Amino acid sequence: MNLTIILAEILISYMKKFFSTAYSEGAFNIATLALRLTFGLLLLIDHGLGKITHFSNLEYSFFDLLHIGHRWSLVLCIFAEVFCSVLVVLGLFTRFAALALVINFGVATFIALKGQPLIGHESAATYLAAFVAILLVGPGRISVDSAMGK
Fold first, then answer.
1. Residues 41-81: pLDDT tens digits?
2. How buried is 32 (Cβ within 10 angstroms: 0-12 exposed, 13-18 middle, 19+ buried)?
3. DSSP state letter for 112
């Protein structure tokens, strides 16, 4: 056979696979791991740790949705953005942690930022979408939950 014909057949084979809607279990598990690690670590580093280090500056002015006080609202937000993001990264109690984060970013997206343009606040909506996806699909096999048999 001619080398160009062989290369064309290989290229066609890869193109069919590339445009296929089928996926492997391994690819799904790697994708869930990437989703958990990316959004969990970004949230922890970019938002959660900042709220802890600036707690004294935020405790009297933080958004108070539940009317439990600015300080306790901030504590709940820190719980979600630090503790729950670590749980998501580890894949431990993943759906519980993702639910807490969905509630946190649902409040941020639809209530705290209500009436403000999405530009400049799109990270809250992005985090909301990511944690809804994690809540729906679960942690995948590469997680502590899977190792524990949950």
1. 999 999 999 999 989 888 888 888 778 888 898 999 999 99
2. buried
3. I
Nearest alpha carbon to residue 147 among 24, 29, 23: 29
Residue 44 sits at φ, ψ, to 5 deg, of -60, -50
Q: Give the C-alpha separation, 84 to 7, whole Å.
A: 49
Number of helices (H), then strands (E), in the chain: 9, 0
Extract the tokens encoding 67.
Answer: 């009317």
Q: Residue 43 and residue 130: Cα distance in Å, rounded?
A: 11
For residues 77 and 120, what is the distance between their CA atoms, to the nearest angstrom? Answer: 20
Distance separating alpha carbons of residues 44 and 80, to the nearest angstrom:
9
Give the other-Cβ count within 10 Å of 37's Cβ.
15
Mean pLDDT by 10 residues, the chain (150 residues): 83 84 88 96 93 89 83 92 96 96 89 67 86 96 88
117: left (phi over 0), alpha (psi -120 to 50) or beta: beta
DSSP at 142: S
The pLDDT, as a whole number, for residue 98 is 97
